[in-house]
Amino acid sequence: MAERGAVLFDLDGTLVDSAADLLHAANVLRARRGLEAFAMAPFRPFVSRGARAMLGASLPGFTPEDEATLAEFLGVYAEAVAAHSRLFPGVESLLDAIEARGLRWGIVTNKAEGLARPLCEALRLLPRCAVLIGGDSLPQRKPHPLPLIEACRRIEAAPAASLYLGDDPRDIEAAHAAGLRGIAVDWGYYDPAHPPGAWGAQRVISAPVHLLDEPLLRERAA
């Protein structure tokens, strides 16, 4: 019997365009400090790198050791985690197609689970995904392979038969280390100076529908 595969996704920048809500939180902090609003264009490349990277880009004087400011940012963000966040175009149809093929899919993100769950619930992803692992769900986070290995274990999927899609080099590093096929997406928040083609991914796709020609999905098509 063939090994059972699954499709795992990163969250921000892969399934969900959450940049507007994250920028709003950063700009609340800027306003509290008497600073003008920060623009989306210079902020966007930092979204998939985590809260510290976003604050480092948007808040003068912030250092990674500044836990108080980090907590302030996350607190503001938690108040409106899905006010303006939306699925990227084509994601809904892709998830429908995955489910129609009888495949399980899940989410492995470095976003704290306490933030990822309400976001996924608001976008009606939570009841559909077979597994959700956040950045604080386990002792390790991406690029360590543990979150992907554990996600596969929970849904009884074989890593070697499974796919992981992400918009950050750490996603591809984690996929390779865990034994999944790493697929980079080019609609996310990456730095234009370091595009997905430079990450060592086994494939780069520019639209969700392109995933449907992967053997895992093609073989299960009706």
Automatic annotation (TrEMBL):
Entry annotated with the keyword Magnesium: yes
Residues that span the membrane, as ranges: none
Keyword Lipid metabolism: no
UniProt xrefs under InterPro entries: HAD-like_hydrolase_sf, HAD-like_sf, HAD-SF_hydro_IA, HAD_2, HAD_sf, PGP-like_dom2, PGPase_prok
E.C. code: 3.1.3.18
Pathways per UniProt: Organic acid metabolism; glycolate biosynthesis; glycolate from 2-phosphoglycolate: step 1/1
Cofactor(s) listed in the protein's UniProt record: Mg(2+)
GO aspect biological process, one term: carbohydrate metabolic process
Catalytic activities: 2-phosphoglycolate + H2O = glycolate + phosphate
One GO CC term on file: cytosol
MF-aspect GO terms: metal ion binding; phosphoglycolate phosphatase activity
Gene3D superfamilies: HAD superfamily/HAD-like (3.40.50.1000), Putative phosphatase, domain 2 (1.10.150.240)
Pfam families for the chain: HAD_2
UniProt keyword annotations, A-Z: Carbohydrate metabolism, Hydrolase, Magnesium, Metal-binding
Family to which this protein belongs: Belongs to the HAD-like hydrolase superfamily. CbbY/CbbZ/Gph/YieH family.
Name this protein carries in UniProt: phosphoglycolate phosphatase
UniProt source species: Aquimonas voraii
